[in-house]
Design a protein that fits this description.
Elements lengths: L2 H7 L2 H11 L10 H8 L3 H13 L3 E3 L5 E3 L2 H5 L1 H4 L3 H17 L2 E8 L2 E8 L14 E3 L4 H8 L3 H7 L17 H14 L2 E4 L6 E9 L5 E10 L5 H22 L9
Antiparallel strand pairs: 1-2, 3-4, 3-8, 4-5, 6-7, 7-8
C-alpha cells in the first residue's frame, strides 16, 4: 500500500491504543496513567478513555495500587505467532507422539497472569466437554496445567498473581474456592511432580499435567492429557497416562537443554 493510502486509512484512536499497550514490557510490567501520559505524550483525558476501553475489553487490568498491567487477552492476540516459538517447535513432535499413543487430547500451556494460555492443542474429536483452542485461556487455579505452573512459583509470586477474582464462579463441581485449599494442592503437586484436575474446570472433564523445564531447571510450561470423566476415573487416568506424560515432559525438557540433576 502506498504511503498516502496508509495515511488515509489510518485510525488514530487505534494507533494510540496500540502505543499504550507497547509501553508495557518485562522491565515495566505495570504502569500508572500518569506514567503512560508521560511516555506516550497522549493527553490525560484521551489516555483515560483509551485505558478504560482497553480494560473493558480485557486487554488491561487495574491493580489494587491503581497501576495497570496487560491482561491475559493481550497474549491471545499473538497466539498464531506463538506457533513459531522454540518451545512450541521443540514440543510438537513429542506431543504428537503422546497424542497418538494415548488417543486422547494433549495440550501445552504457559502461565499468563492468573490464567493458563494454550499454545498447542492436539484434540481428540470425542472430547466435547470443553470448547478450548490454541490461544484460549482458563483460570490457572482450576486447570491441571495451570496448577502445575502455579506450584513452582514462590510464595511472593503467588501473592502478587492471585486475587479473589482468580477463583471465578462457574467452574466445575470440585473446583477449589480458596487460597488455603489451593496451597494444599500445590504442595502435593510439588511432592508428586504432577497435577490432577478432577472436574474442576468443568463437569465431565479430567486431566493430568506435568511440568516442562528449561536449561536452568525453571518450569516454563506444562503438558496435560485431558479425558472425559465418564470413561476415566482418577485411578485409570493415573495408571494409563502418568508415566507416558512424565516421559514426554522429560523429553521436551531435554530438548530445551534441561539435564539430569533437577528432578521432574
Amino acid at each position: 500500500m502506498a504511503e498516502h493510502d496508509r495515511a488515509k486509512y489510518r485510525i488514530e484512536a487505534l494507533a494510540k491504543g496500540l502505543r499504550v499497550l507497547a509501553m508495557f514490557s518485562e522491565r515495566r510490567p505495570a504502569l500508572r496513567v500518569s506514567d503512560l501520559v508521560e511516555q506516550t505524550g497522549i493527553p490525560m483525558g484521551s489516555l483515560f478513555r483509551i485505558v478504560a476501553t482497553l480494560e473493558s475489553e480485557g486487554y488491561l487490568e487495574q491493580l489494587p495500587d491503581g497501576r495497570y498491567r496487560p491482561d491475559s487477552k493481550v497474549l491471545t492476540l499473538g497466539f498464531a505467532a506463538l506457533q513459531g516459538l522454540d518451545l512450541v517447535q521443540t514440543a510438537t513432535g513429542p506431543l504428537q507422539t503422546l497424542s497418538d499413543n494415548t488417543g486422547e487430547t494433549v495440550n501445552l500451556g504457559v502461565l499468563s497472569g492468573d490464567q493458563v494460555l494454550y499454545l498447542v492443542r492436539l484434540r481428540n474429536s470425542e472430547l466435547v466437554t470443553a470448547n478450548i483452542q490454541v490461544g484460549s485461556t482458563l483460570p490457572a487455579v482450576y486447570a491441571s496445567m495451570g496448577k502445575v505452573l502455579l506450584a513452582y512459583l514462590d510464595g511472593g509470586q503467588l501473592d502478587a498473581l492471585l486475587r479473589p477474582e482468580s477463583f471465578v464462579e462457574g467452574a466445575g463441581p470440585h473446583a477449589v474456592r480458596s487460597r488455603t485449599a489451593l496451597d494444599q494442592q500445590l504442595a502435593l503437586i510439588r511432592e508428586r511432580g504432577y497435577a490432577l484436575q478432577d472436574q474442576e474446570v468443568a463437569h465431565g472433564l479430567r486431566s493430568i499435567a506435568a511440568p516442562v523445564r528449561d536449561q536452568s531447571g525453571k518450569v516454563v510450561a506444562s503438558v496435560n492429557v485431558a479425558v472425559q470423566a465418564v470413561g476415566y476415573d482418577v485411578e485409570r487416568l493415573l495408571n494409563e497416562f502418568k508415566q507416558p506424560l512424565l516421559d514426554t515432559c522429560a523429553e521436551i525438557s531435554l530438548r530445551l537443554g534441561h539435564r539430569a540433576g533437577v528432578a521432574l
